[in-house]
Design goal:
single chain, three-stranded antiparallel β-sheet, globular, Rossmann fold, 2 domains, six-stranded parallel β-sheet, binds pantoate, alpha/beta, Pantoate--beta-alanine Ligase, Chain: A,domain 2
Length: 280
């Protein structure tokens, strides 16, 4: 695996692969890699000839008081894991390389970015859309692979690509989970062992809510209220639980068939997000 840190180093590699007719997949990450990221690399290999992973802890997607400084940085282990996963290239730029001295342009997916996580993390999705757009311009991949655990992020990126006519295929990959259902996440490292057991209740609650809907309950407001109560009683500080239409992430109507239940909740030091998406 070749590791590069500047656009000047990356561009000739990408040009050579493109001239040789290779299809290139990008796997954008913030590092601290786990099985969920390695599954993205695996899917990238199935979709393309060349896999480029990026590691960049993006300051513009963290709000004031959030965990930018303490976000786990494990670059050496990450490089070993990516090498073992046969990644062709790792792009690991500095903040200066990505943003320069005085950036004045950002990407904002209005509407979608202000829903759900966007309400408690204002500016977060602008930071995500901006960095992903920048990585797309720098790496120029044919496709890019994202985890569906961050369902709203995936929807924001798909919308950005469509709205800005970016010729990159966006591929979503199902969430990888621990045996108890807890979604793999770098932020799970903030949880104690007993909190990890409790944390699994987030997914279990979403699954119970999905079961109720599949069994015919269409009182989405009440179902969401019950889910929040269950989480609260288990020791979470729930942020939201919303039953939504899958593409727009707007509140589901009883006639909608493609649904996603999105939830975020704090447990100890960690803010956890999860979702279940399904067709009726
Ligand atoms: O999902 C993540 O790890 C990040 O939000 C991403 C997509 C790499 C952008 O910084």
């Amino acid at each position: 695996m070749q590791t590069v840190t500047t656009l000047a180093q990356l561009q000739p590699l990408v040009n050579n692969w493109r001239m040789a007719g290779k299809r290139i997949a990008l796997v954008p990450t913030m590092g601290n890699l786990h099985e969920g990221h390695l599954r993205l690399v695996e899917v990238a290999h199935q979709q393309a000839d060349v896999v480029i992973a990026s590691i960049f802890v993006n300051p513009s997607q963290f709000g004031p008081g959030e965990d930018f400084d303490s976000y786990p940085r494990t670059e050496q282990q990450d490089q070993q894991q990516l090498t073992a996963a046969h990644t062709d290239c790792l792009f690991m730029p500095s903040v200066q390389e990505v943003y320069g001295d005085n950036p004045q342009t950002h990407v904002s997916v209005t509407g979608l970015a202000s829903l759900h996580c966007g309400q408690s993390r204002p500016g977060h999705f602008n930071g995500v859309a901006t960095i992903v757009c920048k990585l797309f311009n720098m790496v120029q991949p044919h496709c890019a692979v994202f985890g569906l655990k961050d369902f709203q992020q995936y929807t924001v990126i798909k919308t950005m690509v469509q709205d800005l006519n970016i010729p990159i295929e966006i591929i979503g990959v199902e969430t990888v989970r621990d045996a108890n259902g807890l979604a793999k996440s770098s932020r799970n490292s903030y949880l104690s062992d007993s909190e990890k057991n409790t944390a699994a209740l987030l997914y279990q609650t979403l699954c119970q809510t999905r079961e109720a809907i599949i069994n015919g309950n269409r009182n989405y407001t009440e179902l969401a209220r019950q889910a929040l109560l269950t989480l609260q009683n288990a020791g979470f500080q729930p942020d939201y639980c919303n039953i939504c239409q899958c593409d727009t992430l707007l509140p589901a109507q009883t006639t909608d068939r493609a649904l996603v239940i999105l939830a975020a909740a704090k447990l100890g030091k960690a803010r956890l997000i999860d979702n279940v998406h399904f067709d009726l």
